[in-house]
Amino acid sequence: MVLSLLEKKITDSYSNAEYLIELLRRIDLEKTINVAISKIEDALKTNDSNTIISISGIVLSSINSKLTSLKSDNDKKSIEYLLADIFQDYLNSIAQLQNGQEILAQINENLKNTCDLHGFDHSAMVKIFNIEKHIVLLPKSKTNKRLYYKWNGQLEELDELARDIYDKKWIYSVKEFKRLFKPIVGSLQIRCNQNKKDELLLLFHVLKEYCLIQPKGKNNSGHFAPFVTYAIDNEEKFLFEKAINKHHEKMKRKLSEYNVLKGRIESIVDQNADKTIRQLRDNGHCPQRKRLITG
Fold this sequence. Notes:
Layout: H1 5-13, H2 17-26, H3 30-46, H4 49-67, H5 73-95, H6 100-118, H7 122-129, H8 131-136, E1 148-151, H9 155-167, H10 174-179, E2 190-191, H11 197-209, E3 213-216, H12 225-230, E4 231-232, H13 244-252, H14 255-282
Parallel strand pairs: 2-4
Antiparallel strand pairs: 1-3
C-alpha cells in the first residue's frame, strides 16, 4: 500500500505513528493536512509566496474546527505537537528563501487576522505554528555558524538514544532532538518536558564524559551550550533561563540524589551506545567511567 505524504512523514519520525495517524483520521484532519503540505511543497518549488501565505489561515481554521471534537487533553496535545513538528520543517525552508523573513511576517499577520475573525485563541495558534519565535530566532545569514554537536558514535545509536528518551517522555520529538547533532539550518526548537530538565542536563554531561559528543559552532561556551540554546518547555519558554553551570552545581549540592540520577543516565547511555563507548575506551580515546562524586 502506498503511504500518503503525511503518513510517510509520521511513520518515518515517530514510534507511536499508528496512534497519531488514527487520531488524525478520527477527527477527519488527515486529508486537510495532506492537501496543505502538498500545496506548500509545490509553492516552495515555484517560490509562490502568495500561496504559502494564504494557505496558513485556511489550515489554522481547519485545525481549530477539528480539535474541538477531541475530549482528551492528551489527544489534543499530541495533535498540536505533531503539527508543530510537521510545519516546523516548512518554516525552516521558508526561512532560507531570499525573502523568507518577509514571508514569515506576512504568515504571522495572516494567522493573527484569522484568529481575530473566527475568535480563535491566538496563544494556542502560537503553540501550533511557532511563527513569532521562528522570526525572532531566524539566523542573520546562511553562513551563520550556530551551535550544534558532533556525534562521535554510530548514527543508529543516536537514533536509539533519541527514541529512548522520547519514549520516556523527556522530549516531544525525535526529529527535533536529532537535528541538534548536525549543522543547524533555519531555526530549531527542541520541545522538552519541564519535569525532566535535570535528566536532560545530566544526559549531555554524561555524553560529554563518554566522549560521544563534541560541541561545535561559533562562540561555543561549553558542552551544555548547544542543547540549552534550543531547548524550550511546554509554555514556549527556554528550559533553562539561568546560567546552566550554576544549575548543575546546585544539583551537585544534593550529592546522594545527584549520584543516583547520574547513575541512571549512565545506564541509559550505556544501553544505547555500548558499542561505540567500548570502542572509544579500547582505543584510548576516552577515559574509563569517572567515579561518582562523593561528599
